[in-house]
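I hope you will forgive my troubling you with a question about protein structure. The matter concerns a single protein, recorded as an amino acid sequence and a row of backbone structure tokens. Please examine both parts with care and let me know of anything in them that strikes you as inconsistent. Thank you for your consideration; the sequence and its tokens are set out here:
***
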Amino acid sequence: MPLALIVHGGAGTIAPEHFASARAGCHDAVLAGWRVLTAGGSALDAVQAAVVALEDNPAFNAGTGAVLTADGRAQLDAGMMQGSDLAVGAVAGVERIKNPILLARKVLHSPHALLAGPGAEQFALDHSLPLCDPEELVTPAQYARWRRGYVDGDDVHLDTENLAELDSAPQRLAGVRLAGAVDDEHRHGTVGAVAVDGAGHVAAATSTGGIAAKYPGRIGDTPLPDPTRRPGPRRYRAQYAGDGMRLYGRRVGVSSRDGLMPLSQPLLAPNRRRMGHPHALRTRRQLPHFGAYL
């Protein structure tokens, strides 16, 4: 079975001057996952490795450097799913987990499907995953954005080299006004990966800080198996990102002998022939600067 891996760094529109750093980050994530696949690793291990690389890169809206809530905290969501048995593991609203996708993986191998907040963090401790200081997730550059007030496009991609860093760590503001989240077509920053391993098994993973200036405690679509992850065992592989809340209750894709026929626009869908598949993955639009594939 031909190996395949797709990595994306977030839907939306990023400024041209950020293309190079976005591509570089996605390239590093692809290499991390690809090394797993070529060494005989599983699709689940590959997407985990790729997403960890994106979570550790402060230029993306996931893990360290993710966007902040209205009151200045990083609350992270992540989820993963494997196509062989459709097992799912997800976490939501965690504030002390450096790599939420690692915790989602542990949930996947447990009797649970989705854990949130303090309960998810306790589950991490129970399964030997250390907690971090919440301040470690808040980068000076992201804090600077939050302090000035988020604007359109702030949760798509962050060029950390071009934002002045602050000397002081973030300080929580008492009685902060909980303003609405940035609400525009450029607000999407969820990262993710889809992989097919040598045994033909499929897996998908997603991770995000959510919407910039979101209301504290808000949980979006990322930790849910639908509509963001649909790794069918043989028929198709899909990874959606963007404002997934708008996909609830809608049919976003159907399978056919030609693969996935999207009824709403996917983030990144290269031609399947390039990945060694006999049929094309049809899409309305391709956004190559957001991701990479092998």
